[in-house]
Amino acid sequence: MSQAEPLVRFSGVQKTYDGEQLVVRDLNLDIQRGEFLSLLGPSGSGKTTTLMMLAGFESPTAGDILLDGRQITGTPPHKRNFGMVFQNYALFPHLTVGQNVAYPLTVRKVPKDEQARRVAKALDMVRLGGMADRLPARLSGGQQQRVALARALVFEPQLVLMDEPLGALDKQLREHMQIELKELHRQLGVTFVYVTHDQGEALTMSDRVAVFNEGVIQQLAPVEDLYEAPSNRFVAGFVGDSTVLKGSLQGGDTLQLADGQRLQGLNVNGVANGAAVEACVRPERIVLHLGSAAPVPNSLAATVARVIYYGDHLRLLCSLGEGQAEATVKLPLTRADSNPHPQAGEAVRLEFPAAATRLYAV
User: Fold this and answer.
1) Domain coordinates of the chain in residue numbers?
2) Which DSSP category does 234 fall into?
3) CB 78 within 8 A of CB 17
4) Measured distance CA(105)–CA(110) in Å, rounded
C-alpha cells in the first residue's frame, strides 16, 4: 500500500462544541487508499466526531481535512461523494429496496437504464438479488443493513464511512456481517472508514485501527501490533483482555511487587526507576504450572479461585494475594485433552514470560 499520497489527511484538526472543551485535539491522521481503517474507542472519545467531520456533517474548529491533496473542509456532504452507512439504516420505508438503493443515482441524475444495471449489481454484491421489489419493513435487520450498504456502494464512491453499522444486530448476525464486510472490502478495493466501540469487531475487520481516548489517537497500528504491542496503558486495557499486576519499576525492566517478588518485563514507556507501574499480560501468554513445588523463573505462586468453561478454552481466575487483582489465565481445550484440569482451591504457579510482560506508567 503506497504511503506517498494518502487519500485523506487530517492536519491539526480540532473540534469543540462549547469553545472550551476539545472533543478532538490536534488530530493528525492519514487514511491510505484502499485500506479498512477502524476508529475505535469508548463513548465520548472523539471517534464519531472525527467521522462526522470527514463526512461534512460537522466542521472542524481548527485545522484542515484534505482529500486527494485538496482542501474539503468547506465542501458540503452531498458534494464529497462518500458512501455512508449508519446504525439505524436510514432507509425510506415507503420506497422499495430497489428504489432505496437507486436513490443516490436519482439524485445524481443517472439515466434510468444505467440505474437499473447498477442497482442490480449492488444488490447482487450484498446477496439480495431478487429482492428489489420488497419494502424494507418486510426485511430482517441484517437484510436492511445490506440494503443500506448497497445504497452506499451503488454510486461507486471513493470512500465509504460507517458509524456503528452492526450495533443493532444480534451477536451471531453481527459476526457473520463482519466477515461479509471484510470480504466485500477485499473484492472492491474501496477505502472503508469504520467507527466502533467494539474491539473484537475492529480486530476482525481492519487493516489498521486508530484507538481514540479523550479526543486523542492513543495508537494507530495494524491489528496484530495493536494487540501484541499496545503503546500505553489505556490501549493495553481497552484492546483485548489483560492480567494486570501492580508494583514499582526496578533495574530498568523489572516489576517489583509490594511483597518484594520480582518479574522481568518490557519497559514500554521509558519509565524511571522507582516509579509506580502496572504490568499487562495477555491471559493466553501466561504459562500455568500445576502444583506449588519448584519455582520457575519469572513466576508467582497463586491459588485457583474459579474455573470457567468456554467450550474451546478454560478461563482460570487466580488469586495472587493481597494488593493484586485476580489473574486471568486462558487454557485452550481440545477433544483429545486428557490432562488434568486445575480445580478451584488448587495451588499453582503462574509464569509470566518477560517478552509478554509489558510495563506501563500508571
Assistant:
1) 8-233, 241-361
2) H
3) no
4) 5
Mean pLDDT per segment of 10 residues, for the chain of length 362 residues?
78 94 96 96 95 96 95 91 86 95 92 94 91 93 90 92 88 88 91 95 95 97 95 94 94 92 93 94 93 79 93 92 91 72 90 95 88
CATH number given to 8-233: 3.40.50.300
Q: What is the largest CA-CA distance in the chain?
A: 79
pTM to 2 decimal places:
0.90
Angstrom distances, CA of residue 303 to CA of 174, 245, 264, 291, 309: 37, 15, 21, 10, 18
Terminal CA-CA length for the chain = 36
Beta-bridged to residue 330, according to DSSP, are 315
What angle do the packed helices 171-188 and 112-125 form, to 10 degrees?
A: 120
CATH number of this structure's domain 241-361, picked from the four choices 2.40.50.140, 3.40.50.970, 2.60.120.260, 3.40.50.1820: 2.40.50.140
